[in-house]
C-alpha cells in the first residue's frame, strides 16, 4: 500500500478539476466526514479487542464517517454489467486523474522546501511505518485464488519476509534520512483527521467492509494511481537532493506489478462467484476521495508551516 503508501494522491474529480476550482465534491465530502468524526478514536478502536460497548462505538463512528460515503458511491456507480466494463471504467478514471492539473502535486514537485516535504512525510508516517500490515485480513476473506493474488502483492510490500526490503523499512529510511523520529505514536498524536482517515480506510476495506469487493476496487485503483501520484515526490526528492528516496521511487515501478495482481484478484473472484461491480466501484471512489483528501490536507499543513517548516510538525528525534 499502502500505502502509501504514503501516498499522496492527486486531488480532483474523476474528470479532474482545473486549478482554482473549489475542492472536488468527493474529496470535500471525505474531508468533512473525517473532520466530523473522531478518527483518532477509531484508529485506537481498530487496534483493540473491543468490548460490546466499544464495538457499538466503532459502529457509530463508522456510520458518522464511511458508511454513508460507501452507500453513496455504490448508489452512484455507473452501469458496469461485467468485469470488462469495470476495468474500462477504471482505466478511464485513472487516465483522467493522471491528466488533470493538480496544484497540490505541482507544489510538492516544484516548490516545497525540505521542511515542507517533512511535514507531508509526517502526515503519512502512520501509514508508511506500518505499511500493508492492516491489509492481511482481507486474504482470508477472499476465495483462495483471489486471495493468493492479493497475497502476492502484500508479501512484496512486506519485503518477501526480508525486513530491509519491506516498504515500511523504506519509510523508516526516508524519515531517518531527513532527521525525523521513528516513533509511530508521535505521528499518531499529531496527524490530521484526514491522514488518520486514510489509515482507517485501509483497515475498513480489509476488515470491516461488508464484502471484499470494496477492498479489491480500492486497492486496484490505489496501486495504479501511485504510478503517477508519486511522480511529484520523485521530482521533489531529485530537486532537493534527497538521498533516501527509495520509498517514493520504488513504488513508481513495483506498483505496475501490484496493479496487475489486483486485476488478477478481481478476475479470480469473478470466476469464483461473480463480481458485484457497484461495490468494486464504490471501493475505487472511496479510496480516491479519502486518499485525495489526505494529500490535500497534508499539503495544506506544509504550506501553512512555511518554507522553514514547523518544528512541532516534523518530528525531530528526541
Ligand atoms: Fe508499498
Ligand atoms: Fe504497492
Automatic annotation (TrEMBL):
Name the UniProt record assigns to this protein: Iron-containing redox enzyme family protein
Residue ranges of the region described as Disordered: 1-24
Feature: compositional bias, Polar residues: 1-10
InterPro entries the record matches: Haem_Oase-like_multi-hlx
Top-rank lineage group of the source organism: Bacteria
Ranges in a coiled coil: none
